[in-house]
Specification:
It is built from nine helices and seven strands. By secondary structure, the chain is α/β, with parallel strands linked by helices. Strands 4-3-2-1-5-6-7 form a seven-stranded mixed beta sheet, with helices on both faces. The chain is globular, with a radius of gyration of 17 Å. 32% of the residues are buried.
């Protein structure tokens, strides 16, 4: 029995931090997990920048409200969910993900949570578990699932490599170069075809 595990940002929706960087005019916030493999280092860097500029959850949520799924993403996800149990496994936060999940047809998402002060300042974050993507895939395998996993960033590689079938989607040239063994896709049409072939095996 298969379960398909997908990354969220860069695969189904635009990168939230890049969108917020553009909205706020703070270029330093464009850094993502495609650029920085150490997630803890990346988040501490982001939170320090937010504090310096007096920005909090409310401002980021206002940007998220304007973000739509990538063209074709909802249709791709609908088709995938009609043939495979599917979970989105993301390093984003529940306070960010809610509006985006509505626009995607309310798929199941496993993500993390932010620590927010009464004044809206983001003071920290709490990971659901260590190496959350890899840990989740291994947990699913331990209860009888074969996993198919895909994403676009460094933090997706663990779950991709641990799965029976793995793939990259709209990733960087560097990650493709570093992992020539992984099939890489840029279009939902070719990806759903690949996934259906995997599910038939």
């Amino acid at each position: 029995m298969y379960i398909t595990c997908l990354d969220l940002e860069g695969v189904l929706v635009p990168e939230i931090w890049i969108a917020f960087s553009e909205e706020s005019g703070i270029p330093e916030l464009k850094l993502t997990t495609r650029d920085e493999p150490d997630y803890d280092k990346l988040m501490k860097y982001r939170l320090n920048i937010l504090k310096e500029h007096g920005l909090g959850l409310k401002e980021i949520q206002a940007t998220i409200a304007k973000i739509d799924p990538m063209p074709g993403a909802k249709e791709f996800l609908d088709e995938l969910r009609s043939v495979s149990q599917t979970i989105i496994i993301s390093d984003t936060f529940s306070q960010f993900a809610g509006p985006l999940m509505k626009k995607l047809g309310l798929p199941t998402i496993f993500c993390n949570s932010l620590e927010v002060a009464p004044n809206g300042e983001i003071t920290g974050y709490k990971m659901r578990c260590e190496k959350s993507k890899l840990t989740t895939v291994k947990a699913l395998q331990s209860i009888g699932f074969e996993t198919i996993a895909g994403g676009d960033s460094f933090n997706d590689l663990g779950m991709i490599q641990a799965s029976k079938f793995g793939f990259l989607f709209r990733t960087t040239e560097q990650i493709k170069k570093d992992h020539p063994e992984l099939p890489a896709f840029t279009e939902y049409g070719e990806l759903i075809k690949f996934l259906k072939e995997c599910l038939s095996k």
